[in-house]
Amino acid sequence: MKNKLIYTLILGIFVTSFSACTKDFEAINTNPNNPTEAPLPTLLAFALRDHASEFYNTWGDMNEPSTYTGHLAKHSYIDEARYNFRPNVVENMWTYTSRQLKNLDVAMTRAEAEGSTNMQAAALTVQSMIWMVATDRWRDLPFNDALQGDQGVISPTYTKQEDIYPVLLERLKVAATMFDVNGDNLGGGDLLFDNDIVKWEKFANSLRLRAAIRISDVDPTLARQHIEEIMGNPGTYPIMETNADNAFITWPGSAPYQEPWQLDEEARDDYSVADYMINTLKDLDDPRLPVYARPGSNGQFTGAPVGPKDEEIAGVDKSTYSRIGARFRSNPAGFSPFMRASEIKFILAEAAAKGFNVGVTAANAYNAGVTLSLQENGIQDAAISAYLSGAGAYDGLESIHLQKWISLFKNGQEAWAESRRTDVPVMTAATGSPYPGHNRPPFRYPYPTSETQLNQANSAEFVAEVEDNFWGKQMWWDTRTNVN
Amino acid sequence: MVGVLLIGSAMAQDRRISGTVTAEEDGLGLPGVTVQVSGTSIGTQTDANGAFSLSVPSSAQSLDFSFIGFVKQTVTIGNRTTINVSLATDATQLGEVVVTALGVLREKRSLGYATQEVDGDALTRSNETNVVNSLSGKVSGVQITGASGAVGSSSRIVLRGNNSFGNNQPLFVIDGVPIDNSATSVGANGSTDYGSGIQELDPNNIESVNVLKGANAAALYGSRAANGVIMITTKSGKGENGLGITYSGGFSVENVAILPDYQNKYGQGKTGSEYWYKRSGSTLSYNDWATANSYRYVDGMGNGINDDVDESWGPRLDAGLLIPQFNSPLLADGTYEATPWISHPGNVDAFFQTGYTLDNNLAITSNSDKGNTRFSYTNQKQVGTIPNTDQKRNTLQLSSSQNVTDKLTVDALINYVNTSNDNLIGQGYNSYNPLNSLGSWFGRQVDVEDLKANAGKTLPTGAPYNWISLYHDNPFESVNDIFRQSRTKDRIFGYASASYKFNPWANVLLRVGNDWSYENRQERTSNRQIDMYLAGKNGDFIQREYFRNELNADLIVTGQGDLNEDFSLSYTAGANYRDNKLKYTMIYAEDLVVPGIYNISNVNGNPQAGNSLDHIRSNSLFGQASFGFRSQLYLDVTARNDWSSTLPADNWSYFYPSASLSWIFTETLDLSNSPLNYGKLRGSWAKVGNATSAYQTLSTYLAFSPAFGGVPQFRLDPKLPPLNLKPESVTSSEIGLELAGFNNRLRFDATYYDKVTTNQIMEISLSKFTGASSLLINAGEIQNKGVELHLGGTLIDRGDDAFRWDIDANWARNKNQVNKLYTDPTTGQELANYPITSAWGVNISAVPGEEFGVIRGYAYDRNEDGAIVVNANGIPKMVAQQELGNITPDWVGGLTNTLSYKNVTLSFLIDARKGGDFYSVSDMFGAYTGVMGFTAEGDIRENGLIVGQDVLKDFTVVKEDGTPNDIRTSANEFFKGVSYAGGGTEFSIIDGSYIKLRNINITYNLPNSITSRYSWLKGAGVSLFANNVAMLYTHKSNKAGLDPETGFGVGNDGLGVEQYQIPSNRSIGLKLNVAF
């Protein structure tokens, strides 16, 4: 009897202690640290800031695109300019790209559901720009299948660059027509244009011009169609006209949001302006020379060679190399140029030179482009006129390409794309390269190892087209021949 | 078995024999002794006073008396009706009682799974402050990685291989109560290692450690025991009645044991070797050419010749050259005098100092019939081999067990630990790890003693005194002043319990255990750090606070007894409530206004802050029953159900059972006349369920702070939430054989296990263009099969006061295979690879069909014949993502020899690992920067080299056209090309095999003849020890001379990657024990 009582008691305690055992579980497992919803402007702000931080800094721009295109050279830690392979950099660029794309995708989807058309269009515009950056680095990549991991697409198939560009052109057209000056406000998240919806429209159309001109040698019909559609309907498709339209991220100027080139300068002095750029500016007696570069310790403007062998520069006094000009290098509240109005003028000049109907002659558009670039760099009108009537005068397609290349300073990825498309100015591979046998700077980025591992089945075919990490199959729009 | 039983009961009985069984040692009656008619199943057990009475058939010749822990006796009956027997203790302790799950004491013979016990004394003999390290080599199937010589750093312990893509650490349990062993992630590239929770347990308080290796052993602990359990029993006041005082003191000195092999032929600079001098065709002298082209110091910032180059491809050392250097006298014109360019071979070694460990413990015990109490105080102080690193720890422990009545016992344990570190070293590829510079980005000619003498001073340029004024800090100033990672932690853990024994069948225990800690860390950088100095910043700091609490409440009912003459039963039934919280707050100042004031009010700009809370709760019900048959056959079954708050409501309840069988066949088969004294076969099967961490079920947005000029930023968490999270499960089966023979002088224990982890809750990395970086899933299947062998032998035993030689060997081989990863339920797409960690182009991953930890990276390009192909420069070409090795060792083993003569005991432990590859960043950058010995071997820097002839000699090397390579290249181009410049990684994959003389120990205990003269002295002993004594073997691929035991932290991050490992220490010391 006594035992029975004991057992009943024990059982009673068990039952009591478990009758309410999962009561608070849902409350306990509700995340108190992070929200399940965030305002859309905060997503747009993240994507814009992240793109500026990661693609206009030392790793995303100065070390590789800007040295590949001959804008910058490294005189210390020359590694990247010699194409020394840094797997982490490739991995990071891939990661940053995809997270910017995804957050913009989320912003777009949610904006559409909320009827926030301007937000949807802004996100689509910025996303299209970033897609272009991505395809210009890796050529073929997950596109049609991308950004759908949350729907179980964990092994996205690859889309070729040939099929990406036409889609981006269409998307930019859609975005441009969605903007509505009477529509929703982008909130504080508009780090580019401070809620000036017209400027967004211009930016979207100008990006479409950038994409169209890039493919103008491989698909002139499509390029012409888009360019002529825009230029034929200026009311519907306004474009960037003045430097006030420029798509610049302007940095607040205090830590951690200092302009990235300036932030680097605080602790390191690895970069000079490349001999390609200095020599070009000298040849043209270009007034931008003292803006782009500072004189070396000997008072002369001397460009540094890009990626030389150690023995080629043994004994050279590095202090004689021209460092980067203060406008680009030393202003913590400086800018990251996503797009400039001058670039648009050069696009129109090239289109006109190629016989597209853009309502302006190549020479006039060229002059407008050069003028905008020089104005942007604080050059006085008199000097501009002198330049345009002197060494800087219009001289056919090559002069357009050269001026565009000069004007793109601090936008290394665009300049690198133009170098590969136009071969102007002609550059050779760095002599200090560990990969002998190439006659041009890199054609592309390799795929990150995460992609070769995690998406092996889809990426293998494309990975195989990469040679020596940075060469191999040329971009679709890269029509150069006899280059390797 | 059943047949024997029936026949036994049916037999006629015609004679009654009675008697008493006593213990030889103390003459007291022994209850529970099995008395059996030899060769039959007829038998009984002695009562509480050791008395028995048994009816035997007339045919009976003799009686067998057997009891756990005593030598079995067979006595001829003859004509007697009274037989009194005195049993001798079995010296081999085969009948030992071990602590099993939930603190329940069990006879080891009754267990159907493998456990291995280590005596507390063995842990403290060598003054090791981390209990995990002291298990090294002592338990089979245990892999311990704790090679970092940094004070306070953690050690990773894995039982029976890596089971999980996430946590592989076993559960640590103290006196039946789980304690927190959390560690903050050190990350794949390393950071400061603040240690793991278990290190805070004072080894002086450990009575014994019992390692329950498989899931089988741990089924009752559930979720967290899937990787095995390490049960720790603390010392109590039990013993002789009255007061006891023991003192033990240990002192050891530590020195760096293994440093890589650096070259001393060439100093800082570029292309300065005689090869380049000859190639230049210069008419200058070598000295003039070298200062003009390769190296000359002006300001360490690039204004001289390569004085900002942190590589050692410069001019030849000790060749009579005179070169201006950072520590040369400054001339009136502001330049530096050219001074002898000479080597400083010990310059890395000179950075380290002699460290020491001081450990003092005083324990007071009191014991009476009513109960016992023990109080212990320990003071530990460690000073690291890296200057200005230290740890101070004070531990107070009070434990008491009181018998309030015959039936009611109350127990309590309280442990207070205070740990403080003025400074801990940063590890891995970080500027705050001085080995990052010293170990590769370095000028080999640098006189480190000069840096030491001038640390804190300023150069004429205004920069901190150092050999270079970019990128790096003076290593002495770095550790003493520039970087400081300090920490204080207070921790209180313990439990209180009351148990009431209603009767032998019902003992109710109510126990509440709590583990509380508060930790404060501050990580500072001063304005003298080179980047801060160059940027004109005043320093920064981050302060983190962790508040952890784990509460465990258990209600446990146990009982045991005989069901009838043949069957016994013991059972446990219980419930557990667990609540775990981690609160974290952080404040960060990116720049300061006034240097040296590390207070958030001194922030320049906006302070940054963060905080989080993680909260988990679980409830469990569990039961266990063990049926015994005649002390020779035992069947155990366990069952447990958990409810975890971390899973969705549909799946938060999960059940898992286990069963095991143990058969002492020497009892059944009566092998008393054979050399075999004891034999047991065991087998078991178990399943363990596991939940996950908090807040995994919903997708959230993460704030990206600070705001951009006032604009807030959020981004989607790149981790996708799971679709339908289920508990994970580990299914494990094992069989084992234990044998003892030749009067127990030979002891053998073998286990074979097969463990499969399925439905793992793991975070899988996704292809980034899925828009997510990872996804939490229930999938995967990892299988671990293995063999563990434990062999002990008394080779020589000449009696108590004479020579005795014991050996104890452990060997374990674990074969791991990743069977499956993940198939998406919606799209059917499969995941082919699970990355565990990655660094510098090397990826370590789990691949279906292969062993956990495949190393992939850039391999030398090989042609169809397997020959390495070089490019036009004569440097091997590379191909991406080739399999280069595996981090899982083939086997690990340890051998302990113990030799004793009278009161002196000498023991030494040799342990070994076969296989287990790793990727060495020290080797890779050491090649790139030309500091490693192998970069200046022979005359390769003087005459250049041909790949295949002078380097990579074991390979056939051809040019792209297939003809043998004859392209001469420079050493710098080759080593850079096969390392970081050319993206090569195969060069730095190292086979981690080693044989180490881990420990030598000599102990002398005062003989009784002396101690008996002083009534106040109960015993005294002294031991001399040396740890990490010698590396006896490493693989030839270990060309840099690294310690193959590498890694940091306790997680999977960084597995198989060596990155400027803080060298392990060799310690030599003395340990004194006195008992009053």
What does this entry look like structurally?
The complex is a heterodimer of chains A (484) and B (1076). Chain A is mainly alpha-helical and 484 residues long. Chain A contains 21 helices and 8 strands. Chain A has helices spanning 2-19, 25-28, 40-55, 58-62, 65-68, 87-114, 117-138, 161-178, 197-214, 220-232, 260-267, 275-283, 289-292, 326-329, 341-353, 362-376, 381-389, 397-407, 412-422, 449-454, 456-463; strands at 72-74, 141-142, 158-159, 247-250, 271-273, 335-339, 466-467, 471-472. Chain A has a two-stranded antiparallel ribbon with strand order 1-5. In chain A, strand 7 (466-467) and strand 8 form a beta hairpin. In chain A, helix 16 (362-376) packs parallel to helix 18. The longest helix of chain A has 28 residues, at 87-114. The radius of gyration of chain A is 26 Å and the shape is globular. Chain A starts with a helix and ends in a 12-residue tail after the last strand. The model of chain A has no long low-confidence stretch (mean pLDDT 94). Mean pLDDT of chain B is 87; it is low at 1-13. The two termini of chain B are 53 Å apart. In chain B, strand 28 and strand 29 form a beta hairpin. In chain B, 53% of the residues are buried. Chain B is built from 15 helices and 56 strands. Chain B is mostly beta strands and 1076 residues long. Chains A and B meet through helix 1, helix 2, helix 3, helix 6 and strand 2 of A and helix 5, helix 10, strand 27, strand 28 and strand 32 of B.
Key traits:
heterodimer; A: 484 residues; mainly alpha; two-stranded antiparallel sheet; two-stranded antiparallel ribbon; 5% strand; globular; B: 1076 residues; mainly beta; 22-stranded antiparallel barrel; elongated; disordered N terminus
